[in-house]
Amino acid sequence: MEYFEKIYLDYKHQVYFFVKKFISNMEDVEDVVQEVFVHLWKHSSALKNPQTLEAIIFKTAHQEISNFYRKNKMLFSFSDESLIKDEADPEKIDTEFKEDQLQKIHNLLEKVPERSKSFFYKNKLEKISYSQIAKENNISKTAVEKQVSKVIRHIKSNLNLF
């Protein structure tokens, strides 16, 4: 309980202003922020790792913003055209967020040694097994696994720094 309270006190303002970027009505912003922290409370066991805490909080906020848009789109589709809010399209927000994240990952991969990057691309994008990559490069399967894991850790640890 105390740990969650600390998380709430540390992040409530950041989450509020993050949500406010996407939603203009203050009551809706407060509702979405509340939904974010309710969701985090329900899944508080996932908040134990301080290295992933912030990423989980803002990923949850993003999901709750998307849920808000989906719910409103459904509600407004049954009502008069004049009641439709002039707010951003949730698909557009999702697309922009994904493009932004992909660009960040690409920038992070530029900083990785060429050999590790090559192993990562072959395994994750081309779906080539660790064994096959190891055989092609005359190294052990474990060495390939370690290099790919190192790239993934690098991306995860630096992705939320931007």
What topology emerges from the helices and strands here?
Layout: H1 2-20, H2 26-42, H3 53-77, H4 90-110, H5 114-124, H6 130-137, H7 141-159
Strand content: under 5%
* Count of alpha and pi helical runs: 7
What low-confidence regions span 5 or more consecutive residues with pLDDT below 50? 74-88
Class by alpha and beta content: mainly alpha
**H and E order:** HHHHHHH
* Major pleated sheet: none
Looking at the structure, what is the overall shape? elongated
Instruction: Give the overall average pLDDT.
Output: 80
Annotation, overall tally of beta strands: 0
What's the Cα radius of gyration? 20 Å
- Helical content, roughly? over 70%
Distance between the termini: 30 Å
Walkthrough of the structure:
It is built from seven helices and no strands. By secondary structure, it is mostly helical. Helix 2 (26-42) packs across helix 3 and helix 4 packs across helix 7. The longest helix is centred in the middle third of the chain and has 25 residues, at 53-77.
